[in-house]
Amino acid sequence: MDALAAEAFLNAEHTVYGLRLRPLSLGHAFSLEAVGSPLYAGQQGSESDLRLAAWLCSRPPLAQLNCQGIRHRLWKWSSAKMDFSTELARWNTYVGDYCSPPQLWRKTSGQKADSSKIPSPIATVVRLMRLGMSQKEAWATPVGVASWYEAAAYEADNSAHLDIVSDSERIAILRHKARQASQQEQNANG
Q: How far apart are CA 142 and CA 167, in angstroms?
């Protein structure tokens, strides 16, 4: 079995700033993108960015963002002394646990496809609904699981296999990159 598939479907419980996070679903991905979360986009973020992301992901998918209630104020006060770098590492583990789509070999061609103006989570929800899920089920589907469902549906609908990078190929790629980095370091040191 592909390790990324196992990672997408078999998840641990995660907490950030003392909040038990729900599975990182398409609804959470949409909400994080809507508020412009740099952390979900893989960029550096501030402590307030991390607090907002954790709060969003502790709520049901697409839940109304309520940062005014007593629950939010008590949580903010009780988590004020927690270490940002520790909580950021927990966040990164959480995202990595749920965002494990199949890794595809890139085909090199001279043309780039135009990207859609429709946000990716919406397009994915529509495709999952075509597979028979309700809208609520589709929005609650973890991000990595949705990617694997899409890949399987593509193969079933097109009678074609996607060129997915295998675990052994991923290991070979990592070894090759490590050798290249070592050689570059040796060349730099003369």
A: 22
**70 is in which domain, residue-wise?**
1-102+117-190
Closest residue by Cα to residue 151 from 113, 107, 110, 100 = 100
What single DSSP character describes residue 25? B
In this prediction the pTM is: 0.79
The dihedral sign for the CA sequence 52, 125, 137, 103:
negative
User: What does DSSP assign to residue 16?
Assistant: E
pLDDT value of position 125: 94
DSSP state of 114: P
Torsion angle in degrees (nearest 10) through CA of 18, 24, 25, 28: 60
| Residue 63, domain member (yes or no) | yes
Is the separation of the CB atoms in 138 and 125 below 8 Å? yes
The CA distances from residue 64 to 27, 52, 84, 93, 139, in Å, are 11, 13, 25, 25, 14
* Structure-model confidence comparison of residues 3 and 38, the more confident one: 38
Q: Please give the tally of structural domains in the chain.
A: 1
Tokens 């929005």 belong to residue:
139
Distance CA 6, CA 71 (A): 35
Nearest to 100, CA basis, from 24, 171, 27, 163: 24
Q: Which residue has the tokens 């992901």?
A: 57
